[in-house]
Amino acid sequence: TNIEVAEALENLARSRGDFRRVAALLAVRAERMQTMDPARQRDLLLELGRLYVNELKSPDGALPVLERAAKIAPDDAQVLEPLADLYFQSGRMREALPLYRTLVEKTARGRQKKDLGRFHHRLGAIAERQNDVNGALEQYNAAYAVDAGHMPTLIALGRLYMQQQNWEKARRIY
User: Fold this and answer.
1) CA–CA dist 34, 152 (Å, integer)
2) pLDDT digits (tens, 9 = 90+) for 67-115
3) What value does the mean pLDDT of the chain take?
């Protein structure tokens, strides 16, 4: 069948390390799944997004792919997390903020605590970039409460406490 041929071509391209070809083949397969199987299309788009980031070193190429996946599965943490991370890394805090808030809500209801701490840390970093020191401290402290060993959170808390000349809290963090 056509699907088997497409998968064989994709496997051949992968074995040769031709990730641009793999990306093109995945994009075609995802497009074809649009009407047939939205869940499979979501999976293909996620795989394509990872390929852009990890193999092709093109986060800009991954953004529209993950945005399409988010339209298919708007509440799916597996889609929202890499999309939020790409927005954050590209400085698009306005887009990242609601996604991290959604991830915090979803994570608080059962996922791993370390993920929750990392999401709170990202919310704190966004607040800090927006010059909202109190909001940043609130989020960093929430991250610290979940994962007291998360080094980026410890650094951020220490830095803010030092800026506020809150020496006792800074000492406890460092």
Assistant:
1) 40
2) 999 999 998 999 999 999 999 999 999 999 999 999 998 887 765 777 8
3) 89
Decide if pLDDT at 35 tops 70: no
* Angstrom distance (rounded) from CA 90 to CA 47: 20
Q: Say if pTM beats, i.e. exceeds, 0.85.
A: no
Write 99-104 long-range contacts (CB < 8 A, 24+): 100/126, 102/75, 103/77
Own/partner contacts of 102-110, CB < 8 Å, gap of 24 or more, are 102/75, 103/77, 106/75, 106/77, 107/77
The C-alpha atoms of residue 43 and residue 98 are separated, in whole angstroms, by 23
Q: Is 110 left (phi over 0), alpha (psi -120 to 50) or beta?
A: left
Are 173 and 165 a contacting pair, CB within 8 Å? no
